[in-house]
Design goal:
globular; six-stranded mixed beta sheet; ATP binding; 28% strand; P-loop_NTPase; AAA+_ATPase; alpha/beta; ATP-binding; binds adenosine-5'-triphosphate
């Protein structure tokens, strides 16, 4: 379970302090699929970055199971991410000069998987996302929807416990959106916990619960 309590985060720009998260309280259970909605600038990506262990909060608590994530140093936070979190960031950037297969294989290479394991795992996610046909294409030539699917494949290839996605269907056509949602549902049915930031009600509708961020807090709406 992920449990966040009294989380606060502010950003300074010059002499102005922007209190983005003022008192965020959130519990997400293992195997749940939840949506986080809210107006632009309400702090959704900031919250996701903290949940992914990429950004520090100013104060509050964040427990991932029994792990006190905010107490982790940089190295332990990187390990925490590697073992637990698949993060699909907004407008994901792929690594140019490498083909689709090698982009998806990257996290597996970092965690020292064998060549045969890499081939088997990458082939599986390519097939699940219906992109086996572009496995050996250079990423520079991909469409927006294909790029998004490759970014999702890269985030899930290590089979993380929790998948965090920031606007995963933001820039894709309706058919690709349906494929991506089906994939999230399938991963969720396999037991993955999924947290999706979205402006799209259709995405929220397939989630178990929806939270709404406003005025620095995050409240359950359905
Ligand atoms: N590193 C940073 N430095 C300064 N300000 C930041 C930083 N990151 C985010 N902010 C500010 O925090 C506020 C919340 O940003 P955030 O990206 O979390 O919002 P959001 O709800 O995800 O927005 P959107 O829906 O447009 O993606 C914004 O005013 C943004 O400018």
């Amino acid at each position: 379970m992920l449990k966040v309590s009294h989380l606060q985060k502010s950003f300074l720009s010059g002499s102005h302090r922007n209190d983005v998260l003022k008192d965020v309280n959130l519990e997400i259970h293992d195997g749940e699929m939840v949506a986080i909605m809210g107006r632009s600038g309400s702090g959704k990506s900031t919250l996701l970055n903290i949940l992914a262990g990429l950004e520090q909060a100013d104060c509050g608590n964040y427990y991932f199971g029994s792990t006190d994530v905010l107490a982790l140093n940089v190295v332990h936070a990187a390990n925490f991410r590697k073992h637990n979190i698949g993060y699909i960031i907004q407008n994901s950037v792929l690594i140019h000069g490498k083909n689709v297969f090698n982009n998806i294989a990257l996290p597996l290479k970092y965690s020292k998987h064998s060549k045969s394991q890499i081939k088997q795992k990458v082939s599986f996610v390519l097939a699940a996302l219906h992109i086996s046909n572009i496995g050996y294409s250079p990423v520079e030539v991909l469409s927006g929807g294909e790029t998004q699917r490759v970014a999702i494949a890269r985030a899930i290839v290590q089979e993380p416990k929790v998948i965090i996605a920031d606007e995963p269907t933001g820039s894709v056509d309706e058919e690709t959106e349906d494929d991506i949602l089906k994939l999230f549902r399938m991963l969720n049915e396999q037991g993955k916990t999924i947290i999706i930031v979205t402006h799209n009600q259709k995405v929220a509708d397939i989630c178990d619960r929806t939270f709404y961020m406003k005025n620095g807090s995050c409240n359950l709406i359905t």
